[in-house]
Each structure stands twice: as structure tokens, then as C-alpha cells.
Amino acid sequence: MRKDLAAKLYADYPHLFWQRSLPRNQSSMHDGLCISDGWEPILRQLCQQLTNILVNDMGLDLASPDAKQYAFTQVKQKLGELRTYMTNTTPAMKNAIDDAEDKVARTCESCGEQGSTNEGLSGYIVTLCARCANDTRNNR
Does residue 47 carry a pLDDT above 80? Predict the structure, then answer.
């Protein structure tokens, strides 16, 4: 993900991304958001849903130690899918994460348009729209 998009997410949801400042041997968030720009709106929506659960459903103050128990430890693309790992989740959080993972399976990871999962040029599984898949083939 572009650094400016990641920085905005970190600034908007510091309670979810605080582990990014930990050393690599303590959290994979040290590596940043290992997804492409097209999935940023879905991740942003997920962050807002998780925040709403923490504040509205659980009644937590986002600056409290209790809220820090619900943070991302890794966000990445694997096999054309969004993979999010957190320190803890509730059933409501798990549902929100599952919904986000379902959305990205139909969303181009490059541009955010409707896409499908297929094998990329390098043999990796990716989720791309027809235009981005074609651009990738033409830029080999």
C-alpha cells in the first residue's frame, strides 16, 4: 500500500495499529500494511466497524489499556485474499473481518473495481479486474 494511504489509516485508527511501532520479533505490523491500494477502502471500512464495536458495543475508551487488547498484528494479502490477524477478537469483530475478506475476494487489489481471483504472471494468486490483469500482462 502507498505510504500516504497507510499513514492516513495509522493516523485515523492508532488504537488498531499501535503494534506497528514494535520490533519485528514482537509484531508483524512492523512490516506495515502488506496489501495493495485497491483494498484500502475495504480496510478503512473494517477499521471503522471495529472501532464502532469497541466504543459502542463494548463501551471502551480507545485510549484505555482494554482497547489496546484489540489491535492488528498483521494485515496482508495471501493467495489473493485479505488476511488480518489481531491480538483478540469478539464474535462481532470476527463477523466484520469475515465480511471484509468476502468483499476483497471480489475487488481488484490494484484499483478497487470489481475483480476476480486468478493466477498472476509470477505464479502468485491475485485478485484483479480485467483491465488491471490485462495491464499486468502487457507490462511484462
Answer: yes
